[in-house]
Amino acid sequence: MKNDIILAGVGGQGILSIAAIIGYAAVESNLYLKQAEVHGMSQRGGDVQSHLRLSSDEIASDLIPQGKADMIISVEPMEALRYLPYLGPEGWLITNTEPFVNIPDYPDEEAIMQEIKKLKRNVTLDAGKIAGELGNKKSANVVILGAASPFIDIPFALLEDAIRKLFGRKGEEVVAINLDALRAGREVAKSEINS
Amino acid sequence: MQKQLLLGDEAIAQAGIDAGMSGIFAYPGTPSTEITEYVRGSKEAKQKGIVASWAANEKTAAEAALGMSYAGKRSITAMKHVGLNVAADVFLNASITGANGGILFVVADDPSMHSSQNEQDSRVYGKFAMIPILEPTNQQEAYDMVHEGFDLSERHKVPVMIRITTRLAHSRAGVVRKESRDQNQFKLPENLRQFVLLPAIARKQYQSLLDNQPLFQKESEESPWNSYRPGEDKSIGIIACGLAHNYLMENYPDRKVPYPVVKVSQYPLPYKNIEKLYNECYRILVLEEGYPVVEEMLKGFMNVGKEINGRLDGTLPRAGELNPNIVGKALGFNQYEIPEVPDLVAKRPPSLCKGCSHIDSFIGLNEAIAEYGKGRVFSDIGCYTLSALPPYESINTCVDMGASITMAKGAADAGMKPAVAVIGDSTFTHSGITGLLDAVNENTNITVIILDNATTGMTGGQPSAAFGRIEDICRGVGVDEAHIRVIKPLRKNHEENTRIMKEELAYEGVSVIIPRRECIQTLNKRMRQKFKDKK
User: Fold this and answer.
1) Tens digit of pLDDT for each residue in B405-444?
2) Which domain-ending residue is among B166, B201, B222?
3) Is the separation of the CB atoms in A27 and A52 below 8 Å?
4) Testing the interface with B: which of A44, A52, A110 to mutate, by most B Cβ within 10 A?
């Protein structure tokens, strides 16, 4: 088993929380894991990515080779496209559709969606909207993780456990909102795969 | 023992805690910051009474670590690669004094300059100091090497360098911990002149460092982290150092490399393994992260003998971080098709945070200095360096910690009027105070703007060494009280702030303006904590 995942977004959007949830579940599954993060200057509103590698065998490189990733999970649509060189021919792209505009030359949203839809395997969802309806827009990143969960070779229950563990300190309410977010994202992905 | 998911930085920190370290001393700098942060946040470290200090700069930090070694205890000083420039004086001389308690210089290089102004390779420094260097390939080795590094340091009474790079520093993987070891007892050096580098003593000490070289060499030859692995195909012999070894292995999914491979994770370079490889192979391919250090050593100046491939002959790019694809290409693998980034994807450079006090300071400065024209603002290293980019484009230099004030002085001496320095509060205490003293002593006509956001912002909000005492320091250095102006950078104060800046730009002599408002990130963090505490 091997899952090579690129996590993408803008500094401060919470991609490291996604990585932490998957990471915790991976350790519980006795998988090997390597996760390269971006710290420092880029975190100030710049583009950030994380290479997350899970495997039943020992992993050599902290970086995923280009053209080999099994999926790109992005919390921002343009950032999803920035890492296309990493995506393997059979890879999935799972992305939020809500743009994060903090630059003057942000491209046309329609054009971004067209590029994303060109890909054979993609799941797109307005995670902020879904999260908002569930009670807290901040859990948008967990909605995205939910949408990616059918493609990650970790039992869904372990991802749920990871959320209970990692959000436990913040109280029952936060745990419940994030579990709902995870499940809602998963449902969207399932219906998109089947359609 | 169960595996713990740790960043490379955290693995080093945890190893220090487990290996009997009594103190860690550092100045924050990406990608090394998390080492000291981790120790400062560790309950275990607190229980063990381990000192974990943010020092004023890397030099003061390293000297404190050396003092702890003098007292017989184990210490670490951690820094980013350019931090070692600041600490170079103590680093090179500590190799001459030698150690008493084990001392590790943990240096994090930043190839590709993710968060730095250059990509210098600290192995060059290690070689310069003639001390052993350990270069881990993964988080587990990073952990283990701290334990062994301390032993090695105490065995030979010499400082040891651990060299990592950004990719390992900021990558997480499972680490198995060793049993915890007690801290050393307080113990003076046996020879109370060991650390007195008067010429007559220094010559002796230097001679003993030279005499120890064969011992360091022997350590490398026998190191469990250096290895020779046979291979059927002798057309290439591969030397893979540190992280580069991972990228090599990544290219062979079954982990079977057909060529003989020498893995290097401890220096001086292991001679026997490399000699064997050289003799049996047709050509040598050197894979190393950073500068072509090993490649140059093998080639020598005349470059006679077998073909050596690497960064110098274009087999690998001369600059920048390695990755599996670059190494794959050097190994001659056919390049498969890689999707391209669609043209519409725009650059998203880092920017000042919404609500950041620096924004108001730079809008004010841009207006105040407009009448003199562009090109007169010397700056420094921190979040505010981002003001070089649009929309502000306020500053004209960023060279090294503290250089804003001293470069402004030199330019003023060359006749520039006004000459402005913009520096953060933490950078000011790191290396700005002495430059200000130079300017005061000659009453040079400069305006120094000390952006006081009460923290070390870029690295994530570490305490600022002169919190609440910036004016006192300026007064103490001798700046005229009437020309130390504290302002609050807020939009509503824009007009008044700009007027004050204009006054001080016009003043002939040393003036200091201190725009003071807390970093928006640390403020938010503080408010969140307050909210939590209330609950």
Assistant:
1) 999 999 999 999 999 999 999 999 999 999 999 999 999 9
2) B222
3) no
4) A44
